[in-house]
Write a structure and sequence with these properties.
The protein is an all-beta fold and 433 residues long. The chain folds into five domains: 85 residues, no CATH class; 95 residues, no CATH class; 54 residues, no CATH class; 56 residues, no CATH class; 78 residues, no CATH class. The protein has one helix and 42 strands. The strands form 20 sheets. It has a four-stranded antiparallel beta sheet, covered by helices on one side.
C-alpha cells in the first residue's frame, strides 16, 4: 500500500509471511525510518525532524542542517538508532592499566597504533611502541630485522681495534700487537725492551719471551739476562749451545767401568751413596741393588752386622698370635721356634686362634680344659679292659661294669655266680657262699 502526503511518500507493508502488521517504512528529506503506520503519517506531516523522535532508547536527537542526528546519551554506547546501553567507564582511570576508555568502553589502546613487526606495551593506559630485539626502524611505521654487520657500521670501538659481532653483540678487541682498552683505544704493546718483563724483549712492538725465539740449540739451556738470551749446554753435554749440544752417552755401552750406567745421557755410578755401612752394591741395568754379605744381617740401606741368635726371630717368622724364640732343630743347629701365645691354639707357623677356655669351669661338667680347649675328660684317661669311664664335675673315673670286678685301670673280669642287690648307695656285688 502506498500513501502520498504532500512531498512525502509513506510505504506501508501489511503482509509479511501471511501476517498483517501495521508498520510502515517512510522516507523524507531527513532520512529513512520504520514506524507504526499512524506514527509514520504523523512524522511525514511534521515539520520538526526530531518529532516524533526517530532515535532509539537512551539516546538524544539533535537537528543538524535540517536533519535529525541521533547519538547516545552521555555515559552510554551502542546503536543510537536502536538502543544505547550504559558504558563500563567514563574515563581511563575506570579501566585496568592495560586498557583505555573509549566511547565509555575499556578497550586495548594498542589496536592499530604500532607499525609492522613492532611490539606494543601499555604503560598506565598509554600504548608504547618499540622494535623488538634484533630489529630496528620507526616502531610507529615499520621495524625490520637488523643485519648483524650493521652493529659495527658505526664502530663503538677505539683506535687500533676491530669490531666483531658475537652472539648479536658488537665486541671490540685490540689489533694484533696492540694492548689497552679497546673501547677507548689500543696502543703498541711496547716500544723498547724496558717496557717488557725481565724475561722478555720488545720485538715488532710486542713483548716476546727471549727464550722462545729459538736462539739456543734445542738441547741447550736458555737463561735470560738483561732481556737477552744466554745459552749453555747442560752438565754432561758437549758442543756449541747456540748450535747443538750432544749427550755424554746414549746407552750403558758408552760408559766406563767406574761409571757403568747411562742415566739421563750421562755416565754415572748409581751405587754412589746408596747402600749402608758394610753393605754391598750391584748394578743391574741402571738400578743399584743393596744387600748384606752372606755372614751378615741388617738393613742394607743403613748398616749390616754379623749374625747372632736373636736374629733368628727378627723378622718374626711365626704366624699371627704366635711368639718366636731361638731354639735348635734335631741336628742341633740353631733355628727359630714358634709357639702360640697363652690362651691361643692352632698352627703357630701360620695362625693361632683364641682358645675355648682357660679353666675347666668354662667347660661342660663332662669336659676339662686341655691346651685351652674343652675336651671330654674320658679322652684324657685310659681305663682298663672292659672298664667304663664316668665323667662327673670335670673328673674322669674308671669302674667295672655290673657283674665284673677287678682293677678298672688295668682289667675287669666277670664275678663268678654274682649276686646283685640294690640299696640306697647303688649296686653292690656279692659273691655266693
Amino acid at each position: 500500500m502506498f500513501i502520498y502526503i504532500g512531498l512525502i511518500f509513506v510505504i506501508a507493508v501489511s503482509a509479511v509471511h501471511g501476517a498483517v502488521y501495521d508498520d510502515a517504512y517512510y522516507w523524507s528529506r531527513y532520512g529513512y525510518y520504520v514506524h507504526p503506520l499512524s506514527r509514520a503519517i504523523v512524522a511525514a506531516q511534521s515539520s520538526d525532524p526530531c518529532s516524533p523522535n526517530p532515535c532509539g532508547t537512551n539516546t538524544q536527537c539533535n537537528v543538524v542542517g535540517n536533519r535529525p542526528v541521533c547519538s547516545c546519551l552521555s555515559g552510554y554506547w551502542g546503536d543510537p538508532l536502536r538502543y544505547c546501553q550504559r558504558g563500563e567507564c567514563s574515563g581511563s582511570e575506570d579501566c585496568p592499566h592495560s586498557k583505555v576508555c573509549r566511547d565509555y568502553r575499556c578497550v586495548d589502546p594498542c589496536v592499530g597504533q604500532c607499525g609492522n613487526n613492532a611490539d606494543c606495551n601499555v604503560r598506565n593506559h598509554i600504548p608504547v611502541c618499540s622494535c623488538p630485539a634484533q630489529y630496528t626502524g620507526d616502531p610507529l611505521i615499520s621495524c625490520r630485522r637488523i643485519d648483524p654487520q650493521e652493529l659495527c657500521n658505526q664502530s663503538p670501538c677505539g683506535s687500533n681495534t676491530r669490531c666483531d659481532v658475537i652472539n648479536g653483540v658488537p665486541t671490540c678487541s685490540c689489533l694484533p700487537g696492540y694492548v689497552g682498552a679497546p673501547l677507548s683505544g689500543c696502543r703498541h704493546e711496547c716500544e723498547s725492551d724496558y717496557e717488557c718483563s725481565s724475561s722478555q724483549s720488545c720485538q715488532n712492538f710486542r713483548c716476546t719471551s727471549v727464550c722462545s725465539t729459538g736462539v739456543c740449540a734445542s738441547t741447550a739451556i736458555c737463561e735470560v739476562r738483561n732481556h737477552r738470551a744466554v745459552c749453555s749446554c747442560p752438565q754432561g753435554y758437549l758442543g756449541d749451545p747456540y748450535v747443538s749440544c750432544r749427550a755424554e752417552c746414549d746407552s750403558n755401552r758408552d760408559c766406563p767401568t767406574e761409571k757403568p750406567a747411562c742415566i739421563g745421557q750421562r755416565c754415572t755410578n748409581p751405587c754412589n751413596g746408596v747402600c749402608g755401612i758394610n753393605a754391598k752394591c750391584e748394578v743391574r741395568g741402571i738400578t743399584p741393588i743393596c744387600s748384606c754379605p752372606r755372614d751378615m744381617t741388617g738393613d742394607p740401606f743403613v748398616r749390616c752386622r754379623p749374625f747372632d741368635k736373636y736374629d733368628l726371630c727378627n723378622p718374626n717368622p711365626c704366624g699371627e698370635n704366635a711368639k718366636c724364640q731361638p731354639g735348635f732343630d734335631n741336628t742341633g743347629k740353631e733355628r727359630p721356634v714358634c709357639t702360640c701365645l697363652p690362651g691361643f691354639v692352632g698352627n703357630a707357623l701360620s695362625y693361632c686362634r683364641r682358645g675355648e677356655c682357660t679353666s675347666e669351669s668354662e667347660c661342660r661338667y663332662d669336659q676339662t680344659c686341655y691346651n685351652y680347649e674343652c675336651k671330654p675328660v674320658c679322652s684324657t684317661l685310659q681305663c682298663g679292659e672292659r672298664a667304663n669311664c664316668n665323667a662327673r664335675n670335670h673328673i674322669a673315673t674308671c669302674s667295672c661294669p655290673p657283674g665284673y670286678t677287678g682293677d678298672a685301670l688295668s682289667r675287669c673280669y666277670p664275678v663268678p655266680d654274682a649276686l646283685i642287690a640294690g640299696n640306697r648307695r647303688g649296686r653292690v656285688y656279692y659273691n655266693k657262699k
